[in-house]
Specification:
Rossmann fold; L-2-Hydroxyisocaproate Dehydrogenase, Chain A, domain 2; about 40% helix; binds nicotinamide-adenine-dinucleotide; binds (2S)-2-hydroxybutanedioic acid
């Protein structure tokens, strides 16, 4: 449910002095997440070395005189930054650079999400909703969630929305139908090159996408283009996607809070429960409907053999990632 407008909501952003942070904070403060009537307080977390840069970002936020922005809290301590927060965007981590596979990032960033999971567990609102953007996002979400035993698994999510939006845009360009008329796209699995952008259920202007899009283009162009888009942007920009990632993070959190339009769905990384044969526990991109502030996996989709094989592949990669961080996953069950 959207919050009541009378009281400011508290929104944490980690890595707030980074590139995604810079693209995200000004949109949050202008009301892009919760609309023009909802005041907010931003809680910004950075590492100590980045605090001077963060203070500059804070000056700029102040200089915008955003009517909704009631306060800014800057910290290099997760326990302070997450105090009482209603929403948390976990962005801060080391980004992938050219030639680096996401897997290489796993151990580098895993410790961050262990510590932040613990701090969220101790200090965040009991209803907090958490989106992990920092890569490898799915496994970082798993680490944070498992280190927060007093919060529910469904309060954690990882970002597949950038991949989802990329798929929508490519379909729109190909079909010449606006994005708003394209529905029921899913990006399954890991936010990595094994992800599966699936248009088998998709509707373009209310007609099955596969009746309008030739399968060669789907298999040979759409799927690899979406899978490799992050790497293509790093190559072209010399830096990881930032504005589009921030935009996708807002889309993800807004749909979660406000709900997905009836009859359609979005893609979110959430804790798997075995649905569609996926290993329980890993954070997996699923087709998800959001309603009343919650989310649930769309049930009963008839998957082709092709889709099942692709889902199995990305499932396997996520199980391998999980196995690489088992020492950071407390085995105790939730409180
Ligand atoms: P960036 O290097 O510009 O910024 C990251 C910031 O995080 C830096 O300011 C750094 O000081 C900070 N940071 C590092 N460790 C921290 C910690 N322990 N606590 C708080 N802050 C910390 O990187 P960016 O371009 O903003 O990207 C951030 C992350 O998002 C990267 O991991 C990147 O790969 C990922 N990303 C994910 C998606 C997605 O779709 N899931 C898309 C794009 C980028
Ligand atoms: C993206 O999809 O643009 C990023 O996640 C790329 C990356 O690996 O940092």
């Amino acid at each position: 449910m959207p919050p009541s407008p009378s009281k400011p909501v508290r929104i944490a952003v980690t890595g707030a002095a980074g590139n995604i942070g810079y693209a995200l904070l000004f949109r949050l403060a202008s009301g892009a997440l919760l609309g023009p009537d909802q005041p907010l307080i931003l809680h910004l977390l950075e590492i100590p070395q980045a605090l001077p840069a963060l203070s500059g970002v804070a000056m700029e936020l102040t200089d915008c005189a955003f009517p909704l922005l009631r306060d800014l809290k800057l910290s290099d301590q997760a326990s302070q930054a997450f105090d009482g927060v209603d929403y948390a965007f976990l962005v801060g981590s080391r980004p992938r650079t050219q030639g680096m596979e996401r897997k290489d990032l796993l151990r580098v960033n895993a410790e961050i999400f262990k510590a932040q999971g613990r701090a969220l567990n101790e200090r965040a609102s009991r209803q907090v909703r958490i989106l992990v953007v920092g890569n490898p996002a799915n496994t970082n979400a798993l680490i944070a969630s498992r280190n927060a035993p007093d919060l529910a698994e469904h309060q954690f999510s990882s970002m597949m929305r950038l991949d989802h939006n990329r798929t929508l845009s490519l379909l729109s360009e190909r079909s010449r139908i606006p994005v708003a008329d394209i529905h029921r796209v899913t990006v399954w699995g890991n936010h990595s090159s094994t992800q599966f952008p699936d248009i088998e259920q998709a509707l373009i202007a209310d007609r099955p996408a596969l009746e309008q899009i030739d399968s060669t283009w789907y298999h040979d162009t759409l799927i690899p283009t979406v899978q490799q888009r992050g790497a293509a942007i790093i190559k072209a920009r010399g830096a990881s996607s930032a504005a589009s990632a921030a935009s996708a993070a807002l889309d993800h959190m807004r749909d979660w809070i406000v709900g997905t339009p009836k009859g359609t769905w979005t893609s979110m990384g959430i804790a798997a429960n075995g649905d569609y044969g996926v290993e329980p526990g890993i954070f997996f991109g699923y087709p998800v409907e959001c309603q009343g502030g919650g989310h649930q996996i769309v049930q009963g989709l008839a998957l082709s053999e092709f889709a099942r094989a692709k889902i199995a592949l990305t499932d396997r990669e996520l199980r391998e990632e999980r196995d690489g961080v088992l020492d950071l996953l407390p085995s105790s069950s939730r409180g």
